[in-house]
Design a protein that fits this description.
526 residues; alpha+beta; DNA ligase i, domain 1; D-amino Acid Aminotransferase, Chain A, domain 1; OB fold (Dihydrolipoamide Acetyltransferase, E2P); seven-stranded mixed beta sheet; 25% strand
C-alpha cells in the first residue's frame, strides 16, 4: 500500500508526462506481480463495488476525531473531497502496517458479506495503521470512486516502455473482459490471453479537431466525409457465434442493446465493426436524450424498447472472418463493409451515410445543416488511412458545428478539488421561467484562474445560504454557456438537459435582466 500510495501521490503531483511515466516504472520495478495486476485493474476501471457507505465512514471519522458535524462539513467544504477530509481529520496512527495492495483489496472485497460491526472494526483498524496519504488512498478504494491523474494512454505508454513492447499490442492486451482471478500479470501484458477472449475489442481510432481551413484538404476526392453522430461510440464484436458490444469507455454494454445483438447474430461470419449506437425511429436519428432512457437499466421493458428503439450506424470494419484488417486502407475496409451490410440488409445495423460535396463551400453547407439531423458535424477521413490506435494527425479530422449558446446567471457555487480546492470553481446556472429562476446546467470549465479567483471573492461576499459545501449566491453574475446539444428531460427541473455544457465567457456587460428565458431555450431543441 505504501508504494501504491506514493505512486498515486506522484501522479497527482505533476503534469509532466515524463515524470508520470517514471513513477509508473518505479512501481513496476519494485512491486509484487499481484499488486501490478491490481494497478491495471484500478487504472482501467475494474474496481470492486462499494460495501461501506460514505455516511458510515463520515460518522466513524467524526467519532474518532471528536468533532461535531458542522465542523466536518466546513472541513469538507474547504478540502472538496470526502476521502481526503476523513484522512486529514483523523488522529495520527498508533501503528504501521506493511500489508501489500492486493491483500488490502482482498479484505475490501470480503466486506460484501460483513456486518456493520465487522465493517467498522476493519475500517477503524485500517485507519489506525496507515499514514495520511495511505488513508486517503484506502478511503478512495473503499468508496469505489478511485480516480488517478493518468490517462489510459499514459498507462499504456508506460507499460510499453518498461517492457519494451509495442504500444498497440499492450493496449490490445489489457483492454477487454479479464478477471483478476483468471490471469497473471506478465502473461496478460504480453498478450498470452488474447486468443481466449472472444469479446476482446480493438483500441479505438480517434480524430483530431480540424485545425486548418477545409480548402487545404483538397482534392476532396481523397477524403471520405460522413456525419459525426452524437450517440455511444462502440465496437460490435462477433466471434464463434457470440456477440459483444463495447463502448469507447471500455464498458461491456451488450445487454442494453438487444436489437443490435439480435441482428448481429443473424450474420454467418465473424466480424468486428466500429460504429455508433443511436436512437433511431422511422429512419430518423433521435436526440441523445432519448438514448439516455436506455442506459444503465437492469431491465428493458417492452415499452422502452418500443418507444426508444436503437440501432448502430456502422463506420468501419476492423476484423472479418477472423482476420485483422485494420492496416488495409479505409477505402478497402469501407467497400467490404458496404458489401457485407447490404448483403444482409440488417434492420438494426446500417451504414453511416457517406456525404459528398463538389467543393469546400458545399461541404461547409452540409456541416452547417448537420444539427438538423441530430449530428454534431462532419468527420473527414483520408481514403488511404489505416485504422490507427488512438489519434494520429492528418488522417482523421472531426469538423464539428459551432456550439449552441445561452446566457444564464450563477446561482450556486461549490469549491473544486485538487489545486482548486480553495476556490469556488464548480457552478450551477439558471435561466428565467416567468418570475422565477430555474436551474439549467452545471459547468466546471471555461474560466481562467484569475476569473475563478474573482468569482470566489464574489461568492464569499454574496453567499445567501449554505447547503453543506454548496453556497447559494445573489443572482448577479451572467455567463454565456456553450453546449453541444439539448433535449427534453424529465430528470431536470427545467425539463431540458444540455449536452457537454461549459462556460464560453463571462458576460460582465449583462445583468440578470438579460439572461435567456426557458421557452427560448426550449426552442433550440430540434
Amino acid at each position: 500500500m505504501k508504494a501504491f500510495a506514493k505512486l498515486v501521490n506522484d501522479l497527482d503531483s505533476s503534469n509532466k508526462t515524463s515524470l508520470k511515466t517514471e513513477a509508473i516504472q518505479r512501481f513496476l520495478r519494485d512491486a509484487d506481480d499481484k499488486d501490478k495486476l491490481w494497478l491495471l485493474a484500478l487504472f482501467t476501471g475494474k474496481r470492486p463495488k462499494r460495501h461501506v457507505g460514505s455516511g458510515l465512514m463520515k460518522q466513524w471519522a467524526m467519532e474518532i476525531a471528536g468533532i461535531p458535524e458542522w465542523l466536518f462539513i466546513e472541513s469538507y467544504s474547504s478540502v472538496g473531497d470526502l476521502g481526503e477530509t476523513i484522512a486529514l481529520i483523523l488522529p495520527p496512527p498508533q501503528q504501521q502496517t506493511e500489508k501489500p495492495l492486493y491483500a488490502w483489496m482482498q479484505d475490501i472485497i470480503a466486506l460484501a458479506d460483513a456486518t456493520e460491526a465487522e465493517k467498522r472494526y476493519f475500517v477503524l483498524h485500517a485507519w489506525n495503521n496507515l499514514n495520511t496519504t495511505e488513508r486517503f488512498i484506502f478511503n478512495k478504494l473503499l468508496g469505489g470512486s478511485f480516480r488517478v491523474g493518468l490517462s489510459s494512454k499514459g498507462l499504456i505508454n508506460a507499460l510499453a516502455k518498461h517492457y519494451a513492447l509495442d504500444e498497440t499490442a499492450v493496449a490490445h492486451s489489457i483492454m477487454g473482459e479479464w478477471r483478476l482471478d483468471d490471469v497473471e500479470f506478465e502473461p496478460l501484458i504480453h498478450g498470452h490471453y488474447s486468443n481466449t477472449f472472444l469479446s476482446k475489442p480493438y483500441p479505438f481510432c480517434l480524430a483530431y479537431a480540424l485545425e486548418t481551413p477545409v480548402e487545404r484538404l483538397a482534392p476532396l476526392s481523397e477524403w471520405q466525409a460522413e456525419y459525426k453522430w452524437d450517440g455511444i461510440r462502440g465496437q460490435l464484436v462477433k466471434r464463434a457465434g457470440e456477440v459483444f458490444i463495447w463502448s469507447r469507455g471500455e464498458e461491456l454494454v451488450t445487454s442494453q442493446f438487444p436489437e443490435v445483438v439480435a441482428t448481429a447474430q443473424q450474420w454467418d461470419e465473424d466480424f468486428v465493426i466500429d460504429g455508433e449506437i443511436l436512437p433511431i425511429k422511422e429512419g430518423a436519428v433521435l436526440n441523445f436524450s432519448e438514448l439516455q432512457k436506455r442506459l444503465n437499466r437492469k431491465l428493458l421493458t417492452r415499452k422502452i424498447l418500443t418507444d426508444t428503439p436503437v440501432g448502430m450506424y456502422a463506420y468501419d470494419l476492423l476484423e472479418w472472418k477472423g482476420e485483422d484488417i485494420r492496416l488495409r486502407p479505409l477505402q478497402e475496409r469501407r467497400a467490404l463493409l458496404e458489401m457485407i451490410v447490404e448483403s444482409y440488409s440488417p434492420a438494426s445495423i446500417q451504414l453511416s451515410p457517406v456525404v459528398s460535396a463538389a467543393d469546400p463551400e458545399s461541404l461547409l453547407q452540409l456541416r452547417e445543416t448537420a444539427r438538423e439531423r441530430n449530428s454534431e458535424g462532419l468527420m473527414l477521413k483520408h481514403r488511404r488511412s489505416i485504422y490507427h490506435t488512438g489519434r494520429k494527425k492528418g488522417d482523421w479530422w472531426k469538423w464539428k458545428i459551432d456550439p449552441l449558446t445561452i446566457d444564464a446567471v450563477l446561482i450556486y457555487a461549490q469549491k473544486g478539488s485538487g489545486r482548486r480546492s480553495a476556490y469556488y470553481s464548480d457552478y450551477t446556472f439558471a435561466v428565467r421561467d416567468g418570475d422565477m429562476l430555474v436551474t439549467i446546467a452545471k459547468a466546471y470549465s471555461g474560466l481562467t484562474d484569475k476569473e475563478i479567483q474573482e468569482v470566489s471573492r464574489f461568492v464569499n461576499k454574496n453567499a445567501i445560504e449554505k447547503f453543506g459545501p454548496v453556497r447559494t449566491v445573489k443572482p448577479e453574475l451572467v455567463f454565456e454557456i456553450a453546449f453541444e446539444g439539448i433535449g427534453y428531460s424529465s430528470r431536470h427541473k427545467s425539463g431540458v438537459a444540455l449536452r457537454f455544457p461549459r462556460i464560453a465567457r463571462w458576460r460582465k456587460d449583462k445583468t440578470v435582466q438579460d439572461i435567456d428565458d426557458l421557452e427560448t431555450v426550449k426552442k433550440l431543441i430540434t
